[in-house]
Design brief:
The protein is α+β, with helices and mostly antiparallel strands and about 425 residues long. It has two domains: about 1-220 and about 335-425, Aminopeptidase (3-Layer(aba) Sandwich), CATH 3.40.630; about 220-330, Alpha-Beta Plaits, CATH 3.30.70.360. Helices cover about 35% and strands about 25% of the residues. The chain is built from ten helices and 18 strands. The protein has an eight-stranded mixed β-sheet with strand order 1-2-6-3-7-18-8-17. Strands 12-14-10-15 form a four-stranded antiparallel β-sheet, with helices on one face. A hairpin with a 3-residue loop joins strand 1 and strand 2 (about 85-90). Helix 1 crosses helix 3. It is elongated, with a radius of gyration of 24 Å.
């Protein structure tokens, strides 16, 4: 394992970036790399332990206890109980300086694992009235492990660091607004970071490559539920009542026309009605139709514009048909914005540590959601993507039962993020 780790951190990028400039490591960078090399076998074991013991959002009791105990052994101040199972580890450097933070999320998904790995999850949970498996199918086991690794490495050089680092083990990213709950429950009342960083595994890149996105990286996750009401009647006498299925179908079609004809094509927008339930017999017009939709876009102003347009469209369609309705429109996690200045600093460090720009891959924004965006409302934030496609595979896919990750990315992620944070602290130290 030590030989393998050494190869990861000292030779992989030279191979990836042959012909490019290889930067000489500073004494601090060398120390971070050596600490990472020594720590990596332990981190791989931790990752496998977390992977085979997944827990749902806000139920991460075992993982939370593991994280808290690990932080305590490092000598960090540990605070628990935020958002039920959240943990914050506070590392104080050897002299005053900026307050910064790194986040790792802990929750798993109700998916039955089919990887065949020796440490595959065998945990079962009840979800939506049936028993399903539970799996770290989105890489949160890796995110948490890398968080612990960075905490350990920086704790090993704490006397050399200016400032304070908060290590945030966040629950409930997939389901339950864990980030916002931590903020509302006072996680940053007395230590307010001026910069946040996080990783997410990237199922489009091999280990050794780091993805990033300029500006908006993930979308607003908003949506609505719509209940269209009718008194119901027999299908042979359809004129005797409003048909909520027809009205619902008109709403679905009109939403797509709205996106195509009322929204500037430069304002990326997706409206998907993923749930449409109505009726129980072919010859009966039902008393109601229920629609659930997700609405994705970027920016605070655009999400309000869409809410207004969708509310108008649904109201007019239902009223034109003579149907009464209940509409519940909700804003979820905001779009995640990559701060340009903080990203520029992170990329400069990444190019130096990885050895070349060719290991850095600029990626397009996604319409998926990520509640790390709530931290970005407090201070500038950057999320980098860790390539994880296994060496013997052409592809893998998060949120699937066969998702697998190359564990080499653990050492790469720890080494890189420890350098990013250290560089920032030194650069922004008040002399």
């Amino acid at each position: 394992m030590k030989k393998r780790t050494f190869i990861i951190l000292t030779a992989v990028f030279a191979v990836l970036c042959s012909g490019s400039e290889i930067f000489a490591a500073s004494p601090l960078e060398t120390k971070i790399r050596d600490l990472t090399n020594k720590l990596t076998p332990e981190l791989v074991n931790i990752r496998r332990d977390i992977h085979c013991h997944p827990e749902l959002g806000l139920q991460e009791k075992r993982t939370s206890a593991l994280v808290a105990e690990y932080f305590r052994k490092l000598g960090l101040e540990v605070r628990t109980g935020y958002s039920v199972t959240g943990v914050v580890g506070i590392l104080k450097g050897g002299r005053p300086g900026p307050i910064v933070a790194m986040r790792g999320d802990m929750d798993a998904l109700p998916i039955t694992e089919e990887t065949g790995l020796p440490f595959a999850s065998k945990v079962k949970v009840a979800a939506e009235g049936r028993e399903v498996g539970l799996m770290h199918a989105c890489g949160h086991d890796i995110h948490t492990t890398v968080l612990l690794g960075v905490a350990s490495v920086l704790a090993g050089i704490r006397e050399e660091l200016p400032g304070t680092i908060l290590f945030i083990a966040q629950p409930g990213e997939e389901c339950c607004g864990g980030a916002l709950r931590m903020i509302r429950e006072g996680a940053f009342l007395d230590y307010k970071p001026q910069a946040f960083w996080a990783y997410h595994v990237d199922d489009t890149l091999k280990a050794g490559f780091i993805g990033y996105t300029q500006g908006f990286a993930c979308a607003n996750v908003d949506g609505f539920t719509l209940l269209i009401k009718s008194k119901g009647c027999h299908g042979a006498g359809s004129f005797l009542c409003v048909d909520p299925i027809v009205v619902g179908a008109q709403v679905v079609t009109a939403l797509q026309v709205m996106v195509a004809r009322e929204i500037d094509v430069r304002n990326h927008t997706v409206v998907t009605v993923g749930y449409f339930h109505s009726g129980a017999a072919p010859n009966i017009i039902p008393e109601s139709a229920e629609l659930w939709a997700t609405v994705r876009n970027y920016g605070d102003s655009q999400r309000q514009v869409l809410k207004d347009k969708i509310t108008r469209l649904i109201t007019n369609t239902c009223e034109a048909a003579g149907a009464s309705f209940d509409l519940n429109y909700e804003f979820g996690s905001p779009s995640m914005y990559t701060d340009p200045g903080l990203l520029k600093e992170a990329l400069a460090t990444s190019e130096r540590v990885l050895g070349s720009k060719s290991a850095l891959v600029e990626e397009k924004p996604e319409m998926g959601g990520e509640d790390f965006s709530f931290f970005g409302k407090i201070a500038p934030a950057v999320m980098l993507n860790l390539g994880v496609i296994p060496k013997d595979m052409d592809k893998t896919a998060v949120h699937s039962p066969t998702f697998a990750a190359d564990e080499d990315n653990i050492a790469i992620g720890v080494n890189l993020m420890a350098n990013i944070i250290a560089d920032y602290l030194y650069k922004h130290e008040k002399k």
